[in-house]
Amino acid sequence: MASPQDRRWLAAAARLAGRARPLSRPNPAVGALVVKDDIVLGRGWTAAGGRPHAEAAALAQAGDAARGADIYATLEPCAHDSARGPSCSDLLAKARPARVIIGCGDPDPRTNGKGIARLQDAGVEVMVVDCPSSHRSLEGFLMRETRGRPFVTLKLALSLDGCIAMANGESQWITGPEARAHAHVLRSRQDAILVGGGTLRDDNPTLNVRLPGLEDRSPERWVLTGGDVPDGWRKLADPADLSPLVPAQYLMIEGGASAAAAFLRADHVDRLVIYRAPIVIGGGRPGITDIGLGSLPDAHGRWARSDSRMLGKDALEIYERIPCSLAS
Amino acid sequence: MASPQDRRWLAAAARLAGRARPLSRPNPAVGALVVKDDIVLGRGWTAAGGRPHAEAAALAQAGDAARGADIYATLEPCAHDSARGPSCSDLLAKARPARVIIGCGDPDPRTNGKGIARLQDAGVEVMVVDCPSSHRSLEGFLMRETRGRPFVTLKLALSLDGCIAMANGESQWITGPEARAHAHVLRSRQDAILVGGGTLRDDNPTLNVRLPGLEDRSPERWVLTGGDVPDGWRKLADPADLSPLVPAQYLMIEGGASAAAAFLRADHVDRLVIYRAPIVIGGGRPGITDIGLGSLPDAHGRWARSDSRMLGKDALEIYERIPCSLAS
């Protein structure tokens, strides 16, 4: 059984994993800790481009001290050798830790259980914990591996009455500088971002990351259209088929109202991130057009608030898609 | 100078004042405490119909012990005798307290400073504290006395995308039972409620209070229309002129989208109470139609969030109109 302290170390490793995102792509963003007697001897996260892996980085930091230690990894250590180095399960077995505690099994068929088996064959005690922080830190990877599409965030900057612009189209600005900076950080963590064809034509948005030091984090730019797209953009024809986006793990929909509606209609939105400005527009342009809702009861049981806080004068509201199996 | 403890007692008196609302009407809902050596000797709030006043009730409870005590009152004690009893300032002077601490001056010309003067003439020390809790507990009274209209709350039950119904009009239910019960409590504290003519025709709402034990708290029902109104309803022709509502201290706008917009356009909304359901409707009926906004910057600096909390699965968001003098 994993102890509460084991769970805390896994949560800490998941926090570290956040540093790997998004530059670890196309590899998952993993975090690892080497711990002995409650002292951290090594910390690692997946490096840019995917190598070294988190476990290799943490082991390199710990050196011989890893022997007899506990090793926490957010994802099952890989079982496949690569031209770029040995598998993590072999590396870990060689380090002879007391235990390896894993936050989430790896659905990648090259590993899926084989990493655990290899460690156990080498006489290492392995525990797999169903760790919510690890799962959350891997949500893009898990979505891609299990459903063949990225994890989709729909970002909306809305007035209190749900508008993204005045009726005449005036839309700058709905939200304040704090919310806009937050949205840029969010963008910098995506692999891909998408706008609708109309938004691309009308606004010609740059959609790059303009935060100092993060300029190189600008995601791939996609547009939802059946037609031609300008240089520097890629095209998605159908929000019901997101496979063209693979290997992207994280996609954010940046507007407009029709693109948002198209993804909601396809039930391909996993998270709503709403920046709610303290303004009333009144009769403005709605942030979401028709999503094909059949009746009002069908709208319920789909979204649950997971976070909210103030960003300057605006409120940030985050909602998660309730898995069908949990919906009331 | 008022001490922090004085301010705490005033806040407690303001809390008591809440019990007077709405049945004290047309009188203000006042709270009073008699305190000696940090022990409460008397508590009072304005009775149904307005008499006895809060101070009289608190003094009656304290009896002779009020001599030398501190008396906290949220509003300046009245200076006018009435067929229903002597003025509170005379009653207080006779009780010979050490001090009377007042949370808010009374703008009613029959009292306005005269209550304080009468106490001081009788040798009682008087302190007037600018107490935010007292002011807030009297916001309807102060609005009526200083601006000749009630304090106006606009209540909205909205989807995440700002809709009050599907495009086909289906609107039951947007919010859950907790939010609807909260709205009934809010309604029970109003003197008047109003709907637009279209809402009255289409929905024929009862708009009464259906909470057990509060059935007698149903407010006066008003409809915004230039035409005829059914029995049991009163009519307001112009949201720019709310004087027909006086002596009501508190008015709540209950819908629909056009009535909400009309009051916002007239700048006659003091508070927004938004019940935000965790649902997306998409292309539904907006909660607020055109408010005559000239440009987007004009929408800013008007509303500030004062409270938010969860009510079941819904979020309650409360916004206050920022006084023009404070707007950035």
UniProtKB/TrEMBL annotation, chains A, B:
The CMP/dCMP-type deaminase domain, residue ranges: 4-119
Active site residues according to the UniProt entry: E55 (proton donor)
Pathway where it operates: Cofactor biosynthesis; riboflavin biosynthesis; 5-amino-6-(D-ribitylamino)uracil from GTP: step 2/4; Cofactor biosynthesis; riboflavin biosynthesis; 5-amino-6-(D-ribitylamino)uracil from GTP: step 3/4
Annotated PROSITE patterns: CYT_DCMP_DEAMINASES_2
Keywords from the named record: Hydrolase, Metal-binding, Multifunctional enzyme, NADP, Oxidoreductase, Riboflavin biosynthesis, Zinc
InterPro entries assigned to the protein according to its UniProt record, in alphabetical order: CMP_dCMP_dom (IPR002125), Cytidine_deaminase-like (IPR016193), DHFR-like_dom_sf (IPR024072), Eubact_RibD (IPR004794), RibDG_C (IPR002734), Riboflavin_Biosynth_HTPR (IPR050765)
Keyword DNA damage: no
Residues annotated as binding Zn(2+): H53, C78, C88
Residues that bind substrate: S171, R187, D203, L207, R210, E254
SUPFAM superfamilies reported for this sequence: Cytidine deaminase-like, Dihydrofolate reductase-like
Catalytic activity: 5-amino-6-(5-phospho-D-ribitylamino)uracil + NADP(+) = 5-amino-6-(5-phospho-D-ribosylamino)uracil + NADPH + H(+); 2,5-diamino-6-hydroxy-4-(5-phosphoribosylamino)-pyrimidine + H2O + H(+) = 5-amino-6-(5-phospho-D-ribosylamino)uracil + NH4(+)
The UniProt record lists the keyword Hydrolase: yes
Cofactor detail note: Binds 1 zinc ion.
Cofactor(s) the record lists: Zn(2+)
One Pfam family cited in the UniProt record for this chain: dCMP_cyt_deam_1
EC number: 3.5.4.26, 1.1.1.193
Top-rank taxon: Bacteria
Amino acids binding NADP(+): A157, W173, T199, G256, A257, S258, A259, A260, A261, A262
Gene Ontology molecular function: 5-amino-6-(5-phosphoribosylamino)uracil reductase activity; diaminohydroxyphosphoribosylaminopyrimidine deaminase activity; metal ion binding
Similarity comment: In the N-terminal section; belongs to the cytidine and deoxycytidylate deaminase family. In the C-terminal section; belongs to the HTP reductase family.
Role, per record: Converts 2,5-diamino-6-(ribosylamino)-4(3h)-pyrimidinone 5'-phosphate into 5-amino-6-(ribosylamino)-2,4(1h,3h)-pyrimidinedione 5'-phosphate.
Designated name of the protein: Riboflavin biosynthesis protein RibD
Source organism: Croceicoccus mobilis
